[in-house]
Design a protein that fits this description.
The strands form 4 sheets. Strands 2-1-3 form a 3-stranded antiparallel beta sheet. Strands 4-5 form a two-stranded antiparallel sheet. The longest helix is centred in the last third of the chain and has 86 residues. The protein is elongated and about 155 Å long. 11% of the residues are buried. Among the domains are: 100 residues, Zinc/RING finger domain, C3HC4 (zinc finger) (Herpes Virus-1, 2-Layer Sandwich); 40 residues, no CATH class. It is built from 5 helices and 9 strands; from the N terminus they run E-E-H-E-H-E-E-H-E-E-H-E-E-H. It is mostly helical.
Length: 244
C-alpha cells in the first residue's frame, strides 16, 4: 500500500501514483511499460496475475526495476503531513525525510517500557506515565535489595524473599559441591587406572630385564668354563713341550 494522497500538500503528479492502490508510491518499482507500483502492491498482484494491471502487457518479477531517477527525485520532494497529525503533530516535511521524523515524532504512540504494561502512550508523555505506571519497578525500601513492582508492594515479604533466596543459594552450592566431588572422583579414578597400567608395564619390563640378566649370566659362565678348558689345554701342551 502507498501513502494516502490526502496527507500530501499541493498537487501530486499522476505518474507518482501506484497503478494498483492509486495512493502515492511507497518503495516504488517500475515495469518495462513505465507504469509504477508500490513494491507490496505489485508483488501481491503478480501472485495471481502475469500482466500489467494498466495495459495488460506481460510482466514478471525479474522485469521490475527501480523508479527513474528524475521520478524518484520528484517523489522525494513531495510535502506531506506526519502520520501523527490526528494526535496533534503539525509537522509537514518532504517524503524523503518522513521516516526520520516519524521515528522521533513526540506524538508517536509507543509502548510502555515496563514489562507487563500494555499501555500505548505518546512519546512526549512517556516519562510522566513511567512515574506512575503500576508496573514500574524499584528497589525494596526495607533494604532487602530486591527489585519489586509497585503492583506487588502489598505482597512483598522481605524475610520470605530472603529465605527463598537462601534456599536457592544452598541448593546451588550443594549442586556445585556434588559436581566438584564427582569431577575429583573421576580424575582420581582416571589417575588410578593410569597408575595400574603403568605398574603393569614396569613389571613386565622388570621381568624382561631379569630374563636378559639370567641369559647374560649363563653366557658368562659358559665363557669362563671355556676359558678354563682352554687354559688347561695350554698347560698340558706346555708340559708335553717340556718333555719333548
Amino acid at each position: 500500500m502507498g501513502y494516502d494522497i490526502d496527507r500530501f500538500v499541493g498537487y501530486v503528479n499522476e505518474g507518482l501514483l501506484c497503478s494498483i492502490c492509486r495512493d502515492v508510491l511507497e518503495d516504488p518499482l517500475q515495469a518495462p511499460c513505465e507504469h509504477a507500483f508500490c513494491t507490496a502492491c505489485i508483488h501481491g498482484w503478480l501472485v495471481h496475475h502475469s500482466n500489467c494491471p494498466e495495459d495488460r502487457q506481460m510482466i514478471d518479477m525479474s522485469l521490475l526495476r527501480p523508479l527513474y531517477r528524475y521520478m524518484k527525485n520528484d517523489l522525494n520532494r513531495l510535502q506531506l503531513h506526519c502520520k501523527n497529525r490526528e494526535y496533534g503533530c503539525e509537522m509537514v516535511c518532504s517524503l524523503e525525510s518522513l521516516d526520520r521524523h516519524e521515528r522521533e515524532c513526540e506524538y508517536s504512540q509507543i509502548p510502555c517500557s515496563n514489562a507487563g504494561c500494555t499501555v500505548q502512550i505518546e512519546r512526549r508523555n512517556l516519562d510522566g506515565h513511567l512515574a506512575v505506571c503500576e508496573y514500574r519497578s524499584r528497589e525494596c525500601p526495607n533494604g532487602c535489595g530486591y527489585t519489586i513492582l509497585s503492583a506487588e508492594d502489598t505482597q512483598h515479604n522481605c524475610v520470605a524473599e530472603l529465605r527463598t533466596e537462601l534456599e536457592l543459594l544452598r541448593s546451588e552450592m550443594i549442586c556445585r559441591v556434588e559436581e566438584a566431588k564427582h569431577e575429583m572422583e573421576s580424575r582420581l579414578d582416571s589417575q588410578r587406572r593410569h597408575m595400574v597400567q603403568k605398574e603393569s608395564i614396569l613389571q613386565n619390563e622388570i621381568e624382561e630385564l631379569k630374563s636378559q640378566m639370567s641369559r647374560l649370566m649363563s653366557d658368562v659362565r659358559s665363557l669362563m668354563a671355556a676359558e678354563r678348558q682352554h687354559r688347561q689345554e695350554l698347560e698340558q701342551a706346555e708340559l708335553e713341550k717340556r718333555e719333548l
